[in-house]
Amino acid sequence: MSVKVRIPTILRTYTGGQAEVPAEGSTLSQVIESLEQNHPGIAARVLDDQGKLRRFVNVYVNDDDVRFEGGLETATPDGAGISIIPAVAGGC
Amino acid sequence: MRRKGLAIMAAQTVAVSISSSVDAEAVDLGPASGLSCRECGERFELGPIFACASCFGPLEVAYDLPSGSPEELKKRIEAGPANIWRYAPLLPVPADVAEKPNLNPGWTKLVQADNLARELGVEQGKLFVKDDSGNPTHSFKDRVVAQAIEAARAFGFTTLSCSSTGNLAGAVGAAAARAGFRSCVFIPHDLEQGKVVMAAVYGGELVGIEGNYDDVNRFCSELIGDPLGEGWGFVNVNLRPYYGEGSKTLAYEICEQLGWRLPDQLVIPIASGSQFTKIDKGLQELIKLGLVEDKPYKLFGAQAEGCSPVSVAYKGGHDVVRPQKPNTIAKSLAIGNPADGPYVLDIARRTGGAVEDVNDEQVVDAIKLLARTEGIFAETAGGVTVGVTKKLIEAGLIDPSLTTVVLNTGDGLKTLDAVADTSQATATIRPSLDAFRAAGLATS
After folding, report:
1. Domains of chain B: residue spans and CATH
2. Where N6-(pyridoxal phosphate)lysine occurs along the chain (chain B) (predicted)?
């Protein structure tokens, strides 16, 4: 499955400044592995030492927050848009 | 203005967008000395950044707080203007902030709520309502936006923006108008009419997003990383570390208005949780500076049942907040994925407080209770705090013999729909004494 991943500003040093990069995988976990292969170091920014999503990272597959879906096992259909977003925005 | 192109944090793993190209040396934000990650402690120079490059944790403003005797500082504060700028030495703003065009919010009333206390079984003279509906745009948001405006000036932004549940959109629109910024703010498309009008009237651009607040917030987070949002200061995204500091002024004012004393118990609404954490930060600063006695206090968080991710986590004994899809009349608190939720849990537990929620019916009852006892018409968030206060007193978690301060963060005129059905004319009569007598309204 080919997907597009939207990269937040603070991770673009890993993608050569690109805001969106392609990746492969049928689950979010596989997509992150694919990202890591192409952009070494990026996975450790998104995942904690236990391999879970960091608590201040939100990831959306299309319009769905993966925390409401299957977390890292959320399916990533062919052509899906994936967004990685810092969670510390908003509110007051 | 001072965007000279020197990339901040060049040695750190932070991508440099146009908005983070700031000459940190030239930035004058008073006592603010830098930013630090609340999660991992990493330090950064002052700039329009909000998340830690290492762990995504929230960045906070670090200070060189004033030295000298507490009495001198008290005198200096007390001689200051009757607004938040009396606390300028403790905020990320330049020393001459009071001379710049802004809305000068704050120094709202701390109402001794004896009638409400009687109804709730609280000792007379011990219950207070901090009524922030008295701010320029009728909510506490003016406090935080005022900080963001100063940061926006320092970083050279010309457009102000935000994701908003309504109150913030109005506060940004008004502050931008006064300070000479363009504004373009984003709200969920289905907000209360009062909030839409109050956001649109100031002449900036107001955009309804088809979705809930969390969808709006996500949209803004993506916009900020896109050329479309270049040069924009999002008060609660890339200016969030500065913006949030405005909530500290609630803590400062409450203590000063109590005669430089800490309250024993504070009941605070929880949306993202930022206000809760900043009030704690403000209280801790006052203790550190010797402006108040160092003694324990308890912070209680209040949510609506229809959007209660922090309350559910607290009551379940968790330290992680599971997001919810909001469904409550308390729309200003309807943030299903609260950024500062984990810190609220930490602080509530550290201080011996709690986080509780009330349902929409209880919110309406509490709005009316506060209105009929104290003459304060609160928006739904105020109904949440008063309702939770009542619930916590009944549960024995709030001690009715101790000084308790309940926050009302906004004006009921913004959320008329919540009480419109049950707040109607008692009777409609012909203009005659007979009709009045017949209606049974004459005093006996």
Report:
1. 18-66+140-243 (3.40.50.1100), 109-138+245-420 (3.40.50.1100)
2. 141
- A→B interface, C-beta within 8 Å: 6-13, 17, 19, 45, 54-58, 60, 63, 65, 67-68, 83, 85-92
Cβ of B34: how many Cβ atoms within 10 Å? Answer: 16
One CATH from 3.10.20.340, 3.40.50.1980, 3.10.20.30, 2.40.50.140 for A2-86:
3.10.20.30
- Helical H segments across B234-304, by residue range: 240-244, 248-257, 274-288
pTM to 2 decimals?
A: 0.91
Q: Give the alpha-carbon dihedral of B259, B265, B269, B274, to 10 degrees.
A: 80
Nearest to B302 by CA among B340, B346, B353, B268: B268
pLDDT digits (tens, 9 = 90+) for B240-254: 999 999 999 999 999
Whether complex ipTM tops 0.95: no
The answer to whether the CB of B94 falls within 8 A of the CB of B64 is: no
Beta bridge partners of A4: A22, A81
Cβ of A91 and B243 within 8 Å? no
Per-residue pLDDT tens digits for B134-190 = 999 999 999 999 999 999 999 999 999 999 988 899 999 999 999 999 999 999 998
Token pair recorded at residue B32: 């603010």
CA B414 remoteness from chain centre: 16
